[in-house]
Amino acid sequence: MSATDPSALALFWVAVIGLAILAYVVLDGFDLGVGILFGATKDVALRDEMIASISPFWDGNETWLIVVGATLFAAFPTVYAVFLGAFYIPVLLLLLGLIFRGVAFEFRARGAAQGFWDRCFAVGSLVAAFVQGAAVGAMIRGIPVVNGQFSGGSFDWVAGLPFLCGIGLVLGYALLGAGWLVLKSEDPLRSWARSRIPLLATAVVAVLFAAVVNAFIDRARMTGSLFLDRSWGFVFPLIGIIAIVGIFSGVRQLRDSWPFAMTVVLFVAAFLSLAVMFWPYMIPYSVTVAAAAAPQPSLSFLFWGAGLFVLPVISVYTAVVYWMFRGKQRKGYPPASAPPSTLKRS
Predict the structure, then answer these.
(1) What is d(CA 335, CA 131) in angstroms, rounded to the nearest whole number?
(2) What gap in Å lies between CA 119 and CA 174, rounded to an integer?
(3) What integer pLDDT is reported at residue 219 of this predicted model?
(4) Concatenated DSSP letters for 61-118?
């Protein structure tokens, strides 16, 4: 192994961060998507069903975001410092959006000013989704780093590609949320959500196409290859195209599980495409995995603590929750504000 190659422990923690990001995007993505769709209807009954469909999961889903932040801080402190410097405002907006979502989720159940809290829930979801996408778009453009510190401006993320990626992730999360509602609910909510999937999927394709065109136009600014020297990486965008076809097919054939499953495949394909594009950088296109990794003793200490105990516990907890609340949410399932004695599982 050369001095420029990452160690086995560094690769392990890169894999942990990658899987945690993917888990967060898929799991918190669908409940953010439900929150975005929440603002698309004023029907109180539909809104209550939407809330009920995510109430057992939403707070646990955000655990994976904490895993990402804590692991970056411990295993790749340079990346943590540069990322916060580059995205201080988006991170602040993300936290505010998630806080407003959490507060609105609980306060709307008390009945006071429910309309206000419903709007907070929808707006918080939209803001959280947009700034995540904008950050991804800014990373695709590249982040300037000098002597291990961010050397750009506070508003470098305000540009065409980040804006398109922000809109794309909002639409993608909404598509994921619609698929979740089709998967978990019955009519009339299932039909309401299914009817919106073709439009959302079409919009996602349009924005993705615009983002790809913008990225190639702006490629002179980047030092990354955008797949040009890794042609094998095009297999992942191809999988994404197949997944989009599967989404439309699932809606046409009235298959409840297909839209959500195919949207998950689409997100996985997009994530792997970004991984191929960025590797070996953790901060595109300035800081490599090897350069960003903490000293070996720190990585080893983290492995014997968090790696062998904390991460397995979180994974098992997540799996148990989704297993316990598997299956359809029936019409009789009450909103989150209902007393525990009235809860009913199918």
Answers:
(1) 29
(2) 16
(3) 67
(4) HTHHHHHHHHHHHHH-HHHHHHHHHHSHHHHHHHHHHHHHHHHHHHHGGG-TTHHHHH
- pLDDT of 211-221, one tens digit each? 888 877 776 66
* Mode of pairing for the β-strands spanning 287-288 and 149-150: unpaired
Terminal-to-terminal C-alpha distance of the chain:
54
**Domains defined along the chain, listed by start:** 10-327 (1.20.1630.10)
How far apart CA 255 and CA 182 sit, in angstroms, is 9
Q: What per-residue confidence (pLDDT) applies to 341?
A: 37
Q: CA–CA separation, 181 vs 158, rounded Å? A: 33
Residue 1, pLDDT above cutoff 50: no
- For the chain, give the mean pLDDT: 85
Per-residue pLDDT tens digits for 134-167: 999 988 888 888 888 888 888 888 888 899 999 9
Answer for the pair 266, 237: CB distance below 8 angstroms, yes or no: no
DSSP alpha helices (H): ranges in the chain?
Answer: 8-38, 44-54, 58-61, 63-75, 77-86, 88-107, 114-141, 160-184, 189-217, 235-252, 258-278, 289-292, 296-302, 311-324
SS3 label, residue 282: strand
Q: Between the CA atoms of 262, 31, 161 and 231, what dihedral angle is there, to the nearest 10 degrees?
A: -30
Helix (H) or strand (E) holding 150: strand 149-150
pLDDT of residue 225: 53
Q: Taking the model in full, what pTM does it have?
A: 0.89
Express each pLDDT in 236-286 by its tens digit.
999 999 999 999 999 999 888 899 999 999 999 999 999 888 888 888 888
The Cα–Cα gap between 264 and 258 comes to 10
Which whole-number Å values give the CA distances from 19 to 13, 14, 205, 265, 305, in the listed order?
10, 9, 25, 14, 18
Binning pLDDT at 50, 70 and 90, where does residue 336 land?
very low
- Mean pLDDT across the stretch 303-322? 86
CA dihedral 271, 275, 278, 279 (to 10 degrees): 170
Label residue 77 exposed, middle or buried (CB < 10 Å: 0-12, 13-18, 19+): middle
